[in-house]
Amino acid sequence: MNAPTYNFAYLDEQTKRMIRRAILKAIAIPGYQVPFASREMPMPYGWGTGGVQVTAAILGPQDVLKVIDQGSDDTTNAISIRKFFGKTAGVETTTSTTDATVIQTRHRIPEAPLHAGQVLVYQVPIPEPLRFLEPRETETRRMHALAEYGLMHVKLYEDIARFGHIATAYAYPVKVNARYVMDPSPTPKFDNPKMDNCPALQLFGAGREKRIYAIPPYTTVVSLDFEDHPFTRYRFDAPCALCGAADSYLDEIVTDDKGGRMFVCSDTDFCEQRQAAGHHGALSAAPHKEKAHV
Amino acid sequence: MSELSRLDNDQPLLVAEGLAKNYGQLAACRDVSFSLYPGEVLAIVGESGSGKSTLLQLLSAQLAPSAGCVSYRMRDGVLRDLADLGEAERRFLFRTDWGYVHQDPAQGLRMAVSAGANVGERLMAVGWNHYGRIRDTASTWLERVEIDVGRIDDAPKTYSGGMRQRLQIARNLVTEPRLVFMDEPTGGLDVSVQARLLDLMRNLVSELGLAAIIVTHDLAVARLLSHRVMVMKGGRVIETGLTDQVLDDPREPYTQLLVSSILPP
């Protein structure tokens, strides 16, 4: 069903062409932040206006859309963006990672491996990895242009000096295609290795900051580190309480005020698929109770 | 090696020819020419508004001259016009072979990151990628500028003025530059701290064989640190010569006035 007063996928065709040109440029220069004329969207900044514009520009009638927020398909942000495109583009939506052709994400990369032909669209709040050390935009642009990235290591140095290890746990800086240093949006660093040599196209949209950048399929993505403090992933040392997965990224959920807590997969689709396949965790007494009234 | 360095010392490190800078009608700097040799310390003295700082900015390629040129002998021994260097080369020069000590340490330091990272930044910028080695080098340099190594993880905003200035010097010298520009390095410090800083700078300059260009209005600083003095007035160099010669036997009336205005000890 296409809402009659809107163009397909909400944005007008001229805007989509402008965004597509920015996307093409971003793909041609992996990791480079391409400025674009970000539009007002019918949602506040910070809710994924950049990601929504990128999705709107690449969506076709045959696409199958999945939207996740912190790995979850059923939080407010994910549901409202999914509904938005269901209404304005009439595309099929799904929660399955493997069935989707376009996945818009906030802060996670799905656990299930992505395959060729898929597009992962990230919502990015602050695209500039050097921002917190160098507040001047003119200066950071020059630093990117001249590949002066010593400052990025200053941040990692500070982490080690203060905490004894690289304490940056999300938005962990990466070097794309051995050239541009990039902020992978606030995904946990657990997900960083998934970006390297990924068969899917990865697009990043920052609506407020008006930047689009990209990692083309099968591109080298290296997390920055020191020789004597190499990059490590981080994960709570527990299996998922619902599906028992020992290799997925976990959310910590406080269950009472006596210190009780449980760890569950942050990727709800991954967790549900595993439960459906018969995997159980310590607390999965009624795994499909919620699913009953979908 | 020795032949090369002997060759180096015979040739100027930095050559300024007919440098001028106009701001509209105002000629901030007029027809300045000189050569600076490796290991030589040159002081530029003069009152406020005489064009000292403008000249320093011209020499360090932070400002484009209205006329004239500055050439610098690169590490490969070739004398090159700074205006012909690409921006990348110029910036590389600035953070490896040159140092720049600002009057206000807040301009030369990252006030919110630790002292260790401040000193290590230049090393990381030239590709050092080993935390332990960066930290060791930073500690060594903090010791050399007489900062307690126990404060390596403190941010310079917790440091006193004198410590900040010494930290700024360490940050600049860590890549072993051959030329250091200093803009009023002792400005705003009290007399005893100044004395300590001057003593430290004099030792470092002679130990490392640094060439330095020091802008100052304080003739005592010039006398203590420099081999040669240039006196500026109204954008022109009015007198130049060996430090003791200029300060003990000034020729120009203005220099005589400057020298006589120092209170006798």
From TrEMBL, chain A:
The protein, known as: Alpha-D-ribose 1-methylphosphonate 5-phosphate C-P lyase
Record-listed E.C. numbers: 4.7.1.1
InterPro entries found in the cross-reference section: PhnJ
Keyword terms, alphabetized: 4Fe-4S, Iron, Iron-sulfur, Lyase, Metal-binding, S-adenosyl-L-methionine
Bilayer-spanning residue ranges: none
Entry function: Catalyzes the breakage of the C-P bond in alpha-D-ribose 1-methylphosphonate 5-phosphate (PRPn) forming alpha-D-ribose.
Any matching Pfam family: PhnJ
Entry keyword annotation includes 4Fe-4S: yes
One example GO MF annotation: metal ion binding
Enzyme superclass (EC): lyase
Lineage top rank: taxon: Bacteria
Similarity comment: Belongs to the PhnJ family.
One Gene Ontology biological process: organic phosphonate catabolic process
Natural source organism: Bradyrhizobium macuxiense
Reactions catalysed: alpha-D-ribose 1-methylphosphonate 5-phosphate + AH2 + S-adenosyl-L-methionine = alpha-D-ribose 1,2-cyclic phosphate 5-phosphate + methane + 5'-deoxyadenosine + L-methionine + A + H(+)
TrEMBL record, chain B:
Keyword hit for ATP-binding: yes
InterPro entries on file: AAA+_ATPase, ABC_transporter-like_ATP-bd, ABC_transporter-like_CS, P-loop_NTPase, PhnK
Annotated keywords: ATP-binding, Lyase, Nucleotide-binding
Superkingdom of this protein's organism: Bacteria
Segments forming domain ABC transporter: 14-259
Pfam families in UniProt: ABC_tran
Listed GO MF terms: ATP binding; ATP hydrolysis activity; lyase activity
Any coiled-coil regions, as ranges: none
A Gene Ontology biological process term: organic phosphonate catabolic process
Function: Involved in beta-(1-->2)glucan export. Transmembrane domains (TMD) form a pore in the inner membrane and the ATP-binding domain (NBD) is responsible for energy generation.
Family: Belongs to the ABC transporter superfamily.
Matches recorded under NCBIfam families: CP_lyasePhnK
Protein name in UniProt: Phosphonate C-P lyase system protein PhnK
Species name: Bradyrhizobium macuxiense
